[in-house]
Amino acid sequence: MAQQQQPMYQQIAEDLRKQIDTEVLKRGSQLPTELELRERYDASRNTIRDAIKRLISQGLVETRPGQGTFVTSKVDPFVTVITADANTGFGGGEGAAYLSQVSAGHRRPSATVPKVEVQAPPEPIAKRLRAGPGAQVVSRHQERYIDGIPWSLQTSFYPMDFIVKGATRLLMAEDIPEGAVRYLADTVGVRQIGYRDWITARLADDNEQRFFGIGHDSTVFVIFRTAFDQTKTPMRLTVTVFPTDRNQFIVNVGTDLPDPQYDEEPGEAAT
Amino acid sequence: MAQQQQPMYQQIAEDLRKQIDTEVLKRGSQLPTELELRERYDASRNTIRDAIKRLISQGLVETRPGQGTFVTSKVDPFVTVITADANTGFGGGEGAAYLSQVSAGHRRPSATVPKVEVQAPPEPIAKRLRAGPGAQVVSRHQERYIDGIPWSLQTSFYPMDFIVKGATRLLMAEDIPEGAVRYLADTVGVRQIGYRDWITARLADDNEQRFFGIGHDSTVFVIFRTAFDQTKTPMRLTVTVFPTDRNQFIVNVGTDLPDPQYDEEPGEAAT
DNA sequence: GCAAATTTGTTCGTATGTATT
DNA sequence: CAATACATACGAACAAATTTG
């Protein structure tokens, strides 16, 4: 009987995970306290805590000091189409239409008013905007929600040059209803010919952990969107941070594809 | 004196992280043993281990039983272009050209011979291929490397129908040099008009942890690529798993964009 | 090839601090 | 204020993996 291979804390974690999967422990419900689990599994409290730590790092439960440990209630994931679809045309702006939201109609996106700053760009930003040393940029930062759930943190950077040439509304801490792309075309004659998204993932920093309400070893998608004008010059860089636990992305290549079937979640797949 | 705010194990982790960032502890080098750190920081071994666990979950160090703890040596990330570029034309096959590899010329991709199976597809696969109950599919699984480094795990699923109609080479455990797209067009007249990538992230399972050599709380990208034929019917589903610590993706929207500047890593950005 | 030394992994017990009810 | 529940920290012992002599 080669059964006693795994450490006890992993066995306990596995047992609790199964109870969560099979809804014996329902979403949002409270787990037994550490002392109760200690008796049930005949283990020390430290071992119980090691098991719970595993479940936390897997995003299955969360602990609240003074209260207890609770099964996390996962939200229906937000699905974002990165490539513009036929209806919205050639997208890629900053505002509400910036990223086409699948399941639109059911869900209500919202965002804080932009926090606008003029700053010397950090090195990675400057490189992507091809801003030389000493150059200044305008940054516009927003916290974005869907149905009241923290969805993403977004910061757009524009060359200061646009302000000098007349696009002063970029400095206003208010939305640009017609979209920044349209506004820049109208005021300074800069037309967007396309953009490039650079998709990465990393651990969430402290800010992001607080805003999204995720643990310290949760990961986030970071998408760098560089938009180019008719002279192939970067005209905007938008950095958006999405927690991976509630976000998915779609990229369409080719025309005339059937609509995605949104009721089909991409579940686990054998490799 | 509001200095004793953070727990000790977090302070120790922070101190070690700084030493790694400033190259005091170089890439690949060994950290002091737990007993040495225990004396240096005047803490118990368990507290030292809590600090190291934090560094592990941040991907900064790795432990090897019987040997010690080592600073992880990060590889130059692999950058994959998801949208087809002008040169390769309308991509989306299964083989080597399946995903255009940036920095090509410097790096050598390789893959194991496909492991071919005929199976009843798991539920998520069947849904996406629109395979009814009882339907069979052919799966072709490969482990893929770049410069000998584990890069991705890929499984493609084809409807069994193609085999019946004559595309028997799909059953062979060997590469299809001209590409599966071309082969299917030639043998059964099924032409690919495009594909849709569905990008998600999740924790790595045991298989993936072993193959990629990553920890149990590391995350992976999972990309579901559904390819459609001229009748808008799914003709292939490819599931590819990439560890997030060494992979990035580019999506181009619009034509005539300048080339990416590959020497510019997307570093950390203020939000 | 084997035994010893080294190093990390697991488990226990205990005590105290902090947040919530 | 008291009770409850999780968070941090210490010490100790043994197991498992690896290297060294």
Describe the structure.
- The structure is a homodimer of 271-residue chains.
- Chain A has 271 residues and is an alpha+beta fold.
- Chain A has 2 domains: 8-71, Winged helix-like DNA-binding domain superfamily/Winged helix DNA-binding domain (Arc Repressor Mutant, subunit A); 78-253, Chorismate lyase.
- Chain A has helices at residues 8-21, 34-40, 45-57, 123-129, 161-164, 180-188, 206-212; strands at 61-64, 68-71, 78-81, 100-101, 109-111, 115-119, 137-146, 149-159, 192-203, 219-229, 234-243, 247-253.
- In chain A, strands 5, 6, 7, 8, 9, 10 and 11 form a 7-stranded antiparallel β-sheet that branches. In chain A, strands 4-3-12 form a 3-stranded mixed β-sheet, with no helix packed on it.
- In chain A, strand 10 (219-229) and strand 11 form a beta hairpin.
- In chain A, helix 1 (8-21) crosses helix 3 (45-57) and helix 2 crosses helix 3.
- The two termini of chain A are 28 Å apart.
- At the A-B interface, helix 4, strand 9, strand 10 and strand 12 of A face helix 4, strand 9, strand 10 and strand 12 of B.
- Strand 9 of chain A pairs antiparallel with strand 12 of chain B, so a sheet runs across the interface.
- Chain A binds a DNA duplex (21 and 21 nucleotides) through residues 7-9, 33-35, 43-47, 49-50, 52, 63-69.
